[in-house]
Design a protein that fits this description.
Elements: H1 2-14, H2 16-36, H3 51-62, E1 72-78, H4 88-102, E2 107-111, E3 125-132, H5 141-155, E4 160-164, H6 177-193, H7 196-224, H8 228-258, H9 263-290, H10 298-329, H11 357-367, H12 369-384, E5 392-393, H13 405-417, E6 425-430, H14 437-449, E7 454-457, E8 461-462, E9 468-475, H15 482-502, E10 505-509, H16 511-545, H17 549-574, E11 590-591, H18 593-622, H19 627-654, H20 662-694, H21 703-708, H22 717-725
Parallel strand pairs: 5-11
Antiparallel strand pairs: 1-3, 1-4, 2-3, 6-9, 6-10, 7-9, 8-9
Helix pairs in contact: 1-2, 1-9, 1-10, 2-7, 2-10, 4-5, 6-7, 6-8, 6-19, 7-8, 7-10, 8-9, 8-10, 8-19, 9-10, 9-16, 9-18, 11-19, 11-20, 12-17, 12-20, 14-15, 16-17, 16-18, 17-18, 17-20, 18-19, 18-20, 19-20
Length: 739
């Protein structure tokens, strides 16, 4: 591996014009493809294998044109000054709004509040239900604009008007998060390298990689049914790893220059050593992202595969374009320890020969491994305590900021009709095989009315064939509550009994039931996903480190950091700690996708630091240093770079905390705090402490396994052997022998 990448790095350095041309051509091709591709609607949403999805599919078949999974909106009206919505003036304004709402090509139906019994008992609140032909993710912007304009026209008459439902759901605004993340990354890189040019290389290559990846996603969006969230995830992950991978290689290049090597040779060795770590770190990220397909949610699978493709591009760019750009930069990229004149280069250091911070910290940990290990484990354990109270769910309009019209509509409906009115359940009764369909419909309705937490059960609405009917159930509790979830399970339990007695099938669906099913599906998939991702990465790390204990320690450390991060998420978003600082206006259940999403993304990113830092230690150990010395050497060369990489990653993710969307805010906070815990507590404290305690045992591998595993030579031992033999051709490229 190291030998091949060494040759690739030297080739890219020498043939830099050709390499740069290839990547510019790929960027241009992807850009042209994105610009000329047909405009893609938002991705469809389906959850195979869930009862709610089966009910939607049945409705599509038995109620043609019903658009069971179509978007919905509720335009909520409230009379001003204690008036009634039944007053003549208010009634005229509402009826005019209903006419305006019905005027749209994507509108399936609009229910008048006065004919549909949608006025509260006290007469102060009313609502008009709007049903669309397509899902909320597929609505055109013009349709959403028409909905907003109709609401505004009603407001102009003096009514309080708010709009709820999934029809207004759009891609959340994250503001200037990406720009802020890149700006912080630039500052960190300049401090790390002491050179504007060297700092610019990782940023340039990361932007090119993300540009190719996101443009490719845009070009294929229509054909593969990819949504805007796919590009958001690809941008977030691609930008973070793209900067990190380039940072690793440029840092190693400067270290090779500091040892007196020629620039082409330094580029080759940087790609051969740090590049090997980048390849395996990238593989762990790809495994984690592609592994999301285990959940069997198509949208999540597409997001993971697309983001994995962007990571693969980042790896290829780091291995080829970085050495090519280093060739262009020439002597403007200084050896490690030197700064450009603009940033103070050429000055005499105040304390020459003093060990850097990484060396001093590693030396302290090696002297006090037990204390550092206990402190790190206890600290992470304390942070993980709130995770024991983790409650999972999916956000609804009740979790929106109070400044949004969706949240205000939610509150008005709760005020006028009760909190359960915001999450009605749709019960679908399939009586095709029943000898008495009408009796089956009546029996289902009667059984549901007897359940606790039920406010209203509408009469059955059969289809034309009379073999299938829908029944709407309004719970007493709010949609995201555990009580409503219990009601859904109770209805399904009753449905099992009814099926035996009447021969009909009872299914529960609607947005609330769908959220419950999705949460359960994600919970059920978490352990298999964790086993798959950690298992495959464990095997990969055994090959990289030629050790059993080091990969085991890496996996256990990751679990500690993820549990601590989940604890922090629960404390902030469920318990409300520091909610004011994070601008969390509504606490509640943690998003169901959060644990599995955090496991996938954070595991891949955490292994970046593990591979880069520990391969340096492994390299020093293989080259003859004692285990303790190897730990210090690894930190001397890698701590500064890993610290910079972690700060950059945290900055990129933290930018999303400013989003107005609670889900995006939670993801940004969760990923940022997880990277902080993993980089600074696990990799920088627990890892060196464990390695210091294990000593030579850390690098133990059974003889039979050592013979069976391929020798990938991440440490670059083959490069050292070849250099010792002096195998160099006239052009300066060595014909390396395998170690």
């Amino acid at each position: 591996m190291a030998t091949f990448l060494y040759k690739l790095g030297r080739l890219a350095f020498r043939r830099r014009h050709f390499v740069a041309l290839i990547w510019v051509a790929l960027l241009t091709l992807a850009g042209v493809g994105a610009a000329s591709a047909p405009a893609a609607g938002n991705t469809s949403f389906s959850i195979p294998g869930t009862e709610a999805q089966k009910a939607f599919d049945l409705l599509e078949a038995r109620f043609p044109g019903m658009s069971a999974d179509g978007a919905t909106a509720r335009v909520v009206f409230k009379a001003p000054g204690g008036g009634k919505m039944t007053d003549a003036g208010h009634k005229r304004a509402v009826e005019k709004t209903v006419e305006e709402l019905a005027d749209g090509s994507e509108v399936a139906s609009v229910a008048d509040p006065y004919t549909g019994h949608a006025v509260s008992k006290d007469g102060t609140v009313a609502y008009a239900s709007v049903k669309y032909k397509v899902s909320g993710m597929e609505l055109q912007d013009s349709t959403r604009d028409a909905l907003k304009e109709a609401a505004q026209h009603a407001r102009d008459t003096g009514l309080t008007v708010e709009v709820g439902g999934d029809a207004l759901n759009a891609t959340p605004e994250t503001g200037s998060s990406e720009i802020i993340g890149i700006a912080i990354a630039a500052v960190v890189l300049v401090i790390t390298f002491g050179s504007l040019l060297a700092a610019g290389l990782p940023l340039l290559t990361a932007i090119i990689g993300v540009g190719i990846g996101v443009s490719s996603i845009t070009a294929l969006a229509s054909a593969l049914d990819l949504g805007s969230t796919t590009s958001t995830l690809a941008t977030m992950i691609g930008l973070a790893v793209g900067i990190d991978y380039a940072l690793f290689i440029v840092s190693r290049y400067r270290a090779e220059l500091a040892e007196g090597r020629e620039r082409e040779e330094a580029a080759g060795r940087a790609v051969g050593t740090a590049g090997s770590a980048v390849v395996f770190a990238g593989l762990t990220v790809v495994i984690a992202l592609v592994g999301l397909s285990v959940v069997n949610i198509p949208m999540l699978t597409k997001m993971g595969v697309a983001a994995a493709g962007t990571v693969a591009i980042a790896v290829l760019i780091a291995l080829t374009m970085i050495p090519a750009l280093l060739g262009y930069a020439g002597r403007k990229v200084k050896p490690a320890g030197q700064k450009s004149r603009l940033l103070g280069g050429g000055r005499t250091p105040k304390r020459p020969g003093r060990p850097n911070m990484g060396t001093r910290w590693a030396s302290f940990v090696v002297r006090r491994p037990v204390a550092v290990l206990l402190l790190g484990v206890v600290g992470l354990g304390a942070a993980a305590v709130p995770a024991a109270s983790l409650e999972l769910g999916l956000p609804d309009d009740g979790s929106q900021p109070v400044s949004t019209t969706q949240r205000r509509a939610y509150d008005l409906l709760s005020e006028g009709f009760g909190p359960g009115f915001n999450g009605p359940l749709m019960v679908v009764v399939d009586a095709k095989d029943s000898p008495a369909p009408k009796a089956a419909f009546a029996e289902v309705r009667a059984r549901i009315k007897d359940l606790d937490d039920v406010v209203t059960v509408t009469p059955a609405a059969p289809n034309k064939a009379g073999d299938t009917a829908t029944i709407t159930v309004v719970p007493r509790s709010k949609p995201s509550s555990a009580t409503t979830e219990d009601l859904v399970h109770a209805i399904r339990d009753k449905g099992t009994d009814i099926a035996r007695e009447t021969g009909s099938t009872v299914l529960v669906t609607g947005s609330t039931a769908m959220n419950i099913d999705v949460s359960q599906k994600l919970n059920d998939a978490l352990l298999p996903y964790l086993a798959l991702v950690v298992g495959l990465a464990f095997l990969l790390l055994i090959v990289v480190f030629r050790s059993v204990l080091v990969p085991l320690k890496a996996a256990l450390g990751f679990l500690l950091s993820v549990l601590a991060a989940l604890g922090a998420v629960v404390a902030v978003f469920q318990w409300g700690w520091l909610s004011g600082l994070m601008n969390v206006e509504q606490t509640g259940p943690v998003m169901s996708m959060m644990p599995i999403f955090m496991v996938g993304v954070v595991f891949g990113l955490a292994m970046d630091y593990e591979v880069f830092l520990v391969t340096r230690m492994r390299e020093a150990y293989v080259h003859g240093e004692t285990p303790g010395q190897a730990v210090v050497t690894g930190f001397r060369h890698g701590a500064r770079v890993v610290t910079a990489a972690a700060v950059i990653m945290i900055a990129v993710f933290s930018g999303f905390i400013g989003s107005s969307e609670s889900m995006v805010k939670m993801i940004g906070f969760g990923l940022a705090i997880a990277v902080f815990f993993d980089a600074f507590l696990v990799r920088m404290a627990i890892v060196p402490a464990v390695l210091a305690l294990l000593g030579k045992r850390a690098w133990w591998l059974p003889t039979w396994l050592d013979r069976a595993l391929p020798n990938v030579d991440v440490e670059g031992e083959g490069l050292r052997t070849a250099a010792g033999h002096g195998n160099t051709d006239p052009d300066g490229e060595k014909e390396l022998v395998r170690a």
